[in-house]
Amino acid sequence: MGSTSDKISGKANEIAGKTRQAVGKAANDRDMQAKGAVQEAKGKGQVATGKAKDKLKGAIDRM
Hints:
Blueprint: H1 3-26, H2 30-62
């Protein structure tokens, strides 16, 4: 998976996770809120992976 696709998938998971948390909060569904938090964290990890790949590629390109 490329850095751009990591970042796009990550942002999508972050947004979906935040939405899931909000719906869970509105419905007083703690399980849904927890799953949303996990999904948001997964998204943040994917974005970080994409950024790390970009930095690595930049370092290799400068060699």
